[in-house]
Amino acid sequence: MSAPLRRLRETPRHLLVCERSHVRHERSRHAARVRGHAYNCRVSFLIPECGVLPEPLKSVTTDMGEYYLVKNLPLHELVAQEFISAFVKTGSCYALSYNTRIDQDNTAALLPTDCHSPLKHIGKLILSVDKDTYEELGLQGRPSRYSGKKIMRYIITIDLTDSAFHSDSKKYKRVLWALRDKKPLEFDFLLSWHHTGADGSTLMSYFSKHQIQAHQPKITFSTLRNLQCPVLCSNELQGKPEESCSAQELFEWLGAVFSNVELDNKSFSFVSTYCCPEPSTMMDQAYLCTITGFILPEKIIQLLDQLCAYFDDPKLAQWVTLTVHGFADSPVSWRENEHGFQKGGENLYNFVVFRSLDYWLQMAVGANDDCPP
Amino acid sequence: MAEGGAGEPPPPPRAPLERLVLKNAAEHHYLRVSLEFPDGGVRLNAAHFKQLVVSALKELHGEVGAALPVDVLTYDEKTLSAILRVSSSGFVKLWSALTLLGSYQNRKCAFRVVQTSPFLLALSGNSRELVLD
Hints:
The complex is a heterodimer of chains A (about 375) and B (about 130).
Chain A: H1 3-9, E1 15-22, H2 30-36, E2 40-48, H3 55-62, E3 67-74, H4 81-88, E4 92-97, E5 107-111, E6 124-130, H5 131-137, E7 142-143, E8 153-159, H6 170-182, E9 186-194, H7 201-206, E10 211-215, E11 218-230, H8 247-258, E12 280-295, H9 297-309, E13 319-326, E14 347-354, E15 358-365
Antiparallel strand pairs in A: 1-15, 2-12, 2-13, 3-9, 3-10, 4-5, 4-9, 5-6, 6-8, 7-8, 11-12, 13-14, 14-15
Helix pairs in contact in A: 2-9, 3-9
Chain B: E1 18-23, E2 28-36, H1 46-66, E3 70-76, E4 81-87, H2 91-100, E5 103-104, E6 107-108, E7 110-117
Antiparallel strand pairs in B: 2-4, 2-7, 3-4, 5-6
Family (chain B): Belongs to the eukaryotic/archaeal RNase P protein component 2 family.
Organism (chain B): Alligator mississippiensis
Keywords (chain B): tRNA processing
């Protein structure tokens, strides 16, 4: 086949990582995976054979935490010593610029201090800026990994909790000068702060001089009737013909369920030939809940714990799933791995928790992303 | 949790029990599209919509293109929007054919490709559609 024709058949790079482990296994890293994925815009869970949510699960679902939208916030406010000592050093402070597209605009994000690894993952401000802004700013950065031969995008990382980043240091003064005087940047920010024992509304009063709105995550519930579900076997990640479906098949099926795709098409149907993967079983009902907003990993861990606790009492369901979608325009996906938007900017993961508390974890990224951890 | 940072020795192995990395393994690609008529007022059912997609493929890529298996997974008659599934090797062909389609029954029209992904699941959560206020 000639080269141009072959190129016509190629698709952008994409990765799907599937893991299998047990929630109680000492080497299980499910919590680290959740914690490492800082910016999440949608969380959904599906429980087969469930009509009413148990109370603990319901209360976690309805308490996914308030988040804030601050309009036109000058970026230097996030490097102010007052802000750093009040929020960044004392809890997990998350910020992500809102309505900025990483393939064309400047984007900023504040990664929280991770109390579980105090030395490695510390309050960092990450800027993904175009070439012109980078040159005007005059801060040290590195070329984006996904900007091609002619570098048009740069990544600047500012370590806010570095000991050399105090109000008298040269470094601090330089950063403040760059962001306040040299090239003032403003963004609308999504903000959230997690700190045990404290109320997030402290953020609201801190930024009261700016236009700030509080938002609650939007929650939708639905009960799906007569749902055809694939049969899964926790030990068989790749599935077994005639016995169980693979993780990949489940991933597609879940997408079909979330998008309300017909699952019982005939193979000769003109419009669509998609069907539920085989083997499958018919379920009377399934409970689907979707939460949309700026959702913190800490809350997702609580939700995951409650989903595991769902199996404390005997249940009809063999497994439950928890799906988390990341922001397509965040400058990082997992941890500090650079993220970009080529065709879709997808960065998402999905847990399948089995009755035995074995779990599958699927992590998917698109073309401009590192391999998930 | 021990996570590897730059310039540090790799953390001790804390591997999961089993890990599979599937690179470019998606059999299908998915597109969320909507059809626009500048004059409006055109009604199409799912079968006609599919027929339009096939004719777009035929126009640009000939009989080979028309034979490409495309599924209309969902279709909304009111908004003329749909989710399409195509085998990964036909993704570029389908996208190009949709882009270059200009008319339906002598009326001007255009396909807008709203979102694409190798993962159907990704189409159910688009952060660019997160509208606050």
